[in-house]
Q: What sequence folds into this?
């Protein structure tokens, strides 16, 4: 049996929760699917801390009754700075329980067109029809694994997204590939768990993020509270409606600089004598006697027990397994990312994308929790407007009838 809803939200991470709660507050008949905060519990080391600062880590509106401060007040706790992952997960679950207690934990297996509407099929084959679908399914399927490691089995080479616990690497030799927060924090955690670690990165040096002040008199002049991107650029990135009007070359440069690899300064004291090899990449990787032998572009070699690819994520909508091919074919895309209107709608009527897939249309803010407020506001505005236009049209059709 199927029923027509105003919106279905696919995904219960920060974006899905923010958008669904905002739509519901605006009176929409909305249903949200997904396991709350599952990316954060299943694909990140449980003992890591958030890279985003406090002011950039609220789900939705930071002034609302569901901010981090409201969570602290209600629970009578003071969260750490940086925010421990477990505290952030608890915050997300609290948000969900308060705003969306009827959340549906089933996985969505298919989104397809159905007449004038969209049809969402849940894991038990129940079909739900909606005028709008908001895809807030995150980045898990987009983990980027460099080709050079393709021939290695998962026990010898894995992506950072494959681990929620790095303790099993105790006593093993691990090479971490990458120079971003994930690479450096994973390397630090691996060492703290007793692994022997080397980081190999292409960059000429490790970039630290967080040197310039975010607080006091000067901080707010340099950085927006959303804190995405370097000083001053942060203020531009915080205004996605402005970003989308800029020439593509400027948008690309702002995104490149805002997403450039770097590690949070608070990790530095934990670095110790971590071995880091810079300006190098792996050109060959082969399995040998239960271990991996790597050859680098300077001809040197390493033999280790495991390669951890902290090599980030590359968005490509084709990797969302639930998008029906006929639907996907009609989504206008550039480099795998959808082209979205100001209300996050794609070229398929009613089909919206929020979070990382929205970076092409709104800039790098949408890659982070700090973008949830903006996304929720814009999606809600657009759907509310469309709903009142539809109601006016329906009334206009009814009126001649009542006059008869
Ligand atoms: C190691 C690491 C650390 C990070 N640290 C930070 C940080 O400190 N601050 C920050 O702002 N950002 C951080 N990020 C980026 C972070 O991933 C995004 O900010 C955030 O996850 C975006 O939220 P989201 O709701 O788009 O996606 P997600 O949090 O990934 O949520 C997606 C949700 O969709 C659900 N889902 C997926 N497919 C389906 C389906 N078919 N049916 C039903 N549900 C589905 C999933 O179960 C999940 O709950 C980090 C990323 C990584 C990899």
A:
């Amino acid at each position: 049996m199927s029923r027509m809803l105003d919106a279905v939200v696919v995904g219960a991470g920060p974006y899905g929760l923010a958008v669904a709660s905002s739509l519901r507050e605006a009176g929409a008949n909305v249903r949200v699917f997904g396991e709350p905060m599952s990316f954060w519990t299943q694909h990140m080391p449980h003992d890591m801390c958030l890279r985003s600062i406090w002011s950039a880590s609220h789900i939705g509106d930071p002034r609302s009754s569901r901010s981090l401060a409201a969570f602290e007040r209600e629970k009578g706790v003071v969260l750490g700075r940086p925010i421990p992952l477990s505290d952030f997960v608890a915050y997300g679950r609290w948000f969900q329980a308060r705003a969306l207690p009827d959340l549906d934990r089933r996985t969505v297996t298919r989104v397809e067109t159905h007449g004038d509407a969209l049809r969402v099929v849940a894991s038990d084959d129940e079909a739900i029809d909606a005028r709008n679908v908001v895809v807030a399914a995150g980045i898990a399927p987009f983990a980027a694994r460099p080709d050079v490691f393709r021939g290695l089995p998962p026990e010898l080479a894995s992506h950072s997204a494959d681990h929620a616990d790095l303790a099993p690497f105790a006593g093993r030799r691990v090479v971490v590939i990458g120079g971003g927060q994930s690479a450096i924090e994973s390397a630090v955690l691996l060492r703290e768990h007793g692994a022997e670690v080397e980081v190999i990165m292409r960059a000429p040096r490790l970039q630290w993020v967080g040197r310039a002040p975010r607080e006091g008199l000067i901080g707010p002049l340099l950085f927006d509270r959303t804190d995405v991107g370097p000083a001053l650029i942060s203020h531009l990135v915080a205004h996605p409606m402005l970003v989308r009007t800029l020439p593509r070359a400027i948008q690309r440069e702002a995104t490149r600089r805002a997403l450039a690899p770097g590690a949070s300064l608070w990790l530095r004291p934990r670095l110790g004598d971590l071995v880091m090899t810079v300006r190098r990449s792996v050109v060959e990787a082969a399995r040998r006697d239960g271990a991996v032998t790597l050859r680098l572009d300077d001809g040197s070699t390493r033999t280790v027990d495991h390669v951890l690819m902290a090599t980030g994520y590359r968005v490509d909508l084709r990797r969302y397994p639930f998008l029906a091919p006929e639907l996907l074919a009609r989504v206008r895309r550039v480099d795998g990312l959808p082209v979205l209107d100001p209300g996050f709608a794609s070229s398929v009527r009613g089909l919206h994308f929020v979070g990382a897939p929205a970076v092409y249309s709104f800039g790098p803010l949408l890659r982070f929790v700090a973008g949830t407020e903006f996304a929720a506001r814009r999606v809600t505005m657009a759907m509310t407007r469309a709903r009142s236009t539809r109601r006016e049209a329906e009334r206009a059709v009814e009126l001649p009838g009542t006059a008869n």
In short: The pocket of flavin-adenine dinucleotide is lined by residues 10-16, 33-35, 38-40, 44, 50-52, 107-108, 136-140, 182, 322, 355, 368-370 (CB under 6 Å). Residues 372-403 form the longest helix (32 residues). The chain has a mean pLDDT of 96.
